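Notes on consecutive records. When two proteins share a document, each keeps its own sequence and its own token line. Never mix them. Below: protein one.
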Amino acid sequence: MPAKRYLSQMNASATAEPSDAVTFDLLAELPDGVRGQVVPILDFGSQYVQLIARRVREQGVYSVLVPPDVSVDVLREAGCVGVILSGGPSSVYEEDAPKPDPRLFELGVPVLGICYGMQVGCQLLGAEVKPAESREYGRVNLRLEDETEKLLRGVPGRTTAWMSHGDQVNALPPDEFVPLATTNTCPFAAVRHQSLPFYGVQFHPEVTHTPHGTDLLANFLFDVCGAKGRWTMADFMDSQVKAVREKVGDAHVILGLSGGVDSSVVAALLSKAIGQQLTCIFVDNGLLRKGERHLVEHTFRGHFDLDLRVIDASADFLNDLEGVTDPQEKRTRIGHRFIDVFKQTAEEIAKGHGDVKFLAQGTLYPDVIESGHGYAGTAANIKLHHNVGGLPEQLGFDLIEPLRNLFKDEVRQLGEVLGLPEAMVWRHPFPGPGLAVRVLGEVTPDQLALLREADEVLLEEIVAASLYRKTAQVFAVLLPVRAVGVMGDGRTHEQVIAIRAVESQDFMTADWARIPFDVLATISNRIINEVRGVNRVCYDISSKPPATIEWE
């Protein structure tokens, strides 16, 4: 479609609201100070869509995911500096394929289409999209047509890029588009419209497999969109402190503090915002890592001076687990007991503070997106509110979720800004049921003690080898088997420890970490020599999928 005819149609329909547009309050999703400097990402269902948002935020530009048919009026009100169209699993020529508001280019701001986003943008502007004669999946050789193009500055004329598509732009309207890059089988791997601010790339610049993808995104944000890149985690902290104070007023807030990164950062943030109006509940279920309770108490009573209630319910949890070997039954019993303990403690706190109105949670942006949003192809009201803690609604509290717009790496940055110790900010994830799902079989005090000692040795050596920050999760598992061994001159029949170490960006997929053999040898020797009852150590080399990260 020629640009003049497209613009004429847009002017004629400027007052028409798309009938199937999703109701979405973008302004409610924006922290203070980013209005006019936000880059929304229209989510067409790409498996990489959250990664796009992370890459944009890493450049100091605030980005947020929005429904694919979000109204142009909503985008205009937010003062967008640019828009990105994500990839997705659909084919644009299918009848029910998700489409953007047809007035998209009426905004007048630059638009970058990625994969499906490129195809739907090009189709909207008159291009033909068809199944590719040769589908491209994985790394391909990319050739640039013009290295001086704004979008491609700093990208070598011959490079590689990551492709994942079965469709592609087959034909462009004459004299409307400029081809920017090609591959052996994709003649339009990147394009620019000549009169409208639209760019399209068939490859995925957001993944690490595209070496110069970050350069391309930076070019789009700063050279094409003119973004200022001034959004910082300190700004986010200040805006959230202000927002929490305004919402809470003189009321009281309860937070379930687990000792993990997310709840710890929430505790530090709320402590800064409302001080003694916050009460944290830490439930010692007897299934914690070695020294975890001490770390939490020392950090939050020594550094943040908040009201911390430590509830030792370890005997009750362990009694619930007696004789239980099924992993799902373990989780169910632990969950029910936690809810009972938390509810009882919350009710006692409420008796002492008649104005308790809020329950704080460490909900993150991936939790929000994965909890039923279904942006791609939806036409329903979106509820961005997600109770991830499993606490019953009958507690009667309103939720406070100050991290709901952040990714995990951003939460860690916020923790550093708030002054949390490095050992807490960068600690690896820990499952809700604790060591109960790392002791395979029945959970007993003796088995837990043995596992804690082995896990402590493992982590000491991983830290000593400077591998802790390079791995996503490392832990020991106690297997429900015994192995024959020889110690001194005698035969042993003792337990087996498995070591699990993975690398991952999002924990949806993970690969086993290539820990150097000499480090593994030291770990094995120390565990066998120092942890009585263990005579064999194994290393888990399974990836996710097909395996899961945890064993149970």
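Protein two starts on the next line and is unrelated to protein one.
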Amino acid sequence: MKTEPKPRKKNPIKQVPSNSSTDQDWTVQQSRELYGVSGWAEDYFDIDSNGDLTVTAKTSNGKPSVSMATIIDGLNQRGLKTPVMLRIENLIEDRVLRLNNAFAKAVADANYRGAYRAVFPIKVNQQHHVVDSIMRSGQTFNHGLEAGSKAELLVALASVSSKDSLIVCNGYKDEEFIDLGFTACQLGYQCFFVLETLEELDLIIRRAKHFDVQPLIGARVKLTTKVEGHWAGDSGDRSLFGLTTVELIGVVDRLRDNDMLDCFRLLHFHLGSQLTNIRNVRDGLKEACQYYIGLVQDGVPLEYFDLGGGLAVDYDGTASTEPHSRNYNLQEYAVDIVETVMKSLDAYGIDHPVIVTESGRWTVAPMSVLIFNVLAVSNFEPDDLPEQIPEGLCDPIRSMLETFAIVGTQRLQESYNDALYYRDQLRKLFSAGKVTLRERAFGENLYLKIVKEISQRSADLKRMPSDLAELNESLSDIYYGNFSVFQSLPDAWAIDQVFPVMPLHRLNEEPTRKAIIADLTCDCDGKLDRFVGGDGETQRTLQLHELDSSQPYYVGVFLVGAYQETLGDLHNLFGDNNVASIRITEDGEVEFVEEVSGDTIAQVLSYVEYDPQQMLSRFRAKAEAAVRSQQITVKARQEMVQLFRDSLQGYTYFEE
């Protein structure tokens, strides 16, 4: 799209255009490169010739694609206003299929004599529809579930249908937790108790005798191998979970003393949630294999080897060891695991175990997209200077005018230093009451014009001074999105997780604005200011389009299916989003499988111990008192009470 330069007022001082014009039409390929789509989207998302983002699903009839514009239209028709958490059911099925097929191929190619079993850690996304989709998609592969609490174990007991699927119980366990697991054992399900402490073992032994059941016991070993990234604390000597070597031998001896050593069937370890470097995977697995070998040599009849989670998601699309990426693909991950276990155990003549992985993040991250609309924009565009400069301006402003007149004829760094110095002098004079508010406003606008031109000229520099590199960020727009970071993207705030963010339409137009995105909360941390860049570098601003008052502007945040939905909090009492689960049919149609309305204000208030009906009664009484004192009319009282009642049932987010 070509943009025409704005008309200029005649002025002896050079004016800087607010937006750069483009010499050629913008293409969707440029948008792909700008937002790094080919890196993080795999083959799930792309851009069509109309400039709309599309989602592609694998079906028995090919790979139909549907535009996000079509999906958003369907959401609006069903009254599911943004923000919406969109779950794409086809992508869950595809991930389950890819995971199991990758290990099946690795097992077959290596002539591995054991099997593979996947389990999904419920904590990664506990939503009912998500767990059900995984169980349905993985039924052919006997896909299992991992539970880390009593509530999650109840989910597993209700969801697992095949008795060849595994239920792996991690975390700290009380008597009720263990008793629930024994009910699964009595029903013929393979429910493993993974020991985190020696105290748990005593409880399991005691309850096993009560139920007269031979339990399936595993032990989580604490490896010394250290990994990189956010979850390094899950590895090494100081990791929070797992048994030391001494404790592991204690488990063996205690089980042998109780004639229950045959129950010890699984060895478990976990290096971290997002393993970016395949070398960490191999190194940790080699160490764990030595524990497995040592236990078998000590008479433990191990049959299952649980590697925990760690299969990483390439959030930034760089295929690197950066914290938000990975330097390997799924097939390489599967092959390295199978071959490492096989070679390590073959050297000692030990049978190949059933390999178990708990790949949660990788399985569900791509399926969910947070969709929100932009409500408004705040920018730092300077106004044009008047044709006639006012007389009697203070010294700092006159000095800034001189600096503005010669920007580009001297070093940009020097111009920036001068402008910054004179602006600070102006502010000191204003604080001392020596310049007027209008003078201050004139000077601030002039400063913006200077740094705006410096910023534009600095793009041509071969070596960017650090001060100038920060100008783009300080001059970027603020786009206000209809969502809460704390509710929908808590990891972006808590651990600086980078998620792909991009517009969902107008991608055949050049996005001329550089922006950060602010949410609806009254919090300086309620923003997105770290973005995936097309060059692989994390960017502090995102290029977006100028808003068009004739149509909404929609933005999507991708790869948010892992952890985000249940880690969110109620900052400013913004509740759960509307949720829609869709399926793309073989004919390329969108089927709305499930629709869940987001929290109403009344529901959110009840979470923090308010009684909405009592609140309504109190407000009604206040309005009635105002009628009695003749402050308002009876009609006004009715309208106020009705507004209060309607608001209680309304969406917590911005509504048109």
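For the record: The longest strand covers residues 368-378.
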